[in-house]
Write a structure and sequence with these properties.
Order of helices and strands: HHHHHHHHHHH
Shape: elongated
Number of helices: 11
Structural class: mainly alpha
Largest sheet: none
Helix content: over 70%
Length: about 180
């Protein structure tokens, strides 16, 4: 075998180099290029769950939701404790209005990592879409406890819903004082 043949053969070092390039392209919002790099890696190694995860993220950014779900599912098959894959798969399912299935994925993500606010916030929105305003409010509060920036998601939901607003208001009546002019 000559040196040209050796260079064209897939190897672990090549896969690692492609993975780093793919992550870099993803961070630069070059999703098509990143997608291509991650697909090349998968052709070299079909057992790397993290590559499927990142390719799923690319598909999600490109609104290829069914493909994203397939890649997150493959990630989960290879690593059943990948909480972010459950969360992201749930988010893709929610965008496709597969709300019950999305709710299951968010719940599993929370079971695996209850410190991450994202699945609480996503499950809150999913519950809101299912008409469970009280459940949505509870999940949003859990997200806010983990990271106060998630209050913005609650406020977006409140702007859309009068029903959940009554739950929000009762939680803050005690600390709000009407001002007299």
């Amino acid at each position: 075998m000559d040196s040209a043949d050796k260079e064209s053969k897939p190897n672990e070092e090549n896969a690692e180099s492609l993975f780093l390039k793919g992550k870099e392209k993803f961070e630069q919002n070059s999703f098509f290029e990143a997608l291509d790099l991650f697909s090349q890696i998968i052709s070299l190694d079909r057992n790397n769950g993290e590559v499927y995860f990142y390719r799923g993220k690319c598909h999600g950014e490109l609104n290829n939701l069914k493909e994203a779900i397939e890649d997150y599912t493959q990630t989960i098959k290879l690593d059943s404790n990948h909480a972010k894959a459950y969360n992201n798969r749930g988010y893709s399912k929610m965008q496709l209005l597969q709300l019950s299935a999305a709710l299951e994925d968010f719940t599993k993500a929370i079971e695996l990592d209850n410190k991450d606010p994202k699945p609480f916030s996503n499950r809150g929105y999913c519950k809101y879409m299912l008409g469970d305003d009280k459940g949505a409010f509870t999940d949003y509060l859990e997200a806010i406890k983990r990271n106060p920036i998630y209050v913005i998601n609650l406020l977006r939901c409140l702007a859309q819903s009068i029903s959940i607003n009554k739950y929000f208001a009762t939680g803050f009546v005690i600390i709000s004082v009407p001002l007299k002019i």
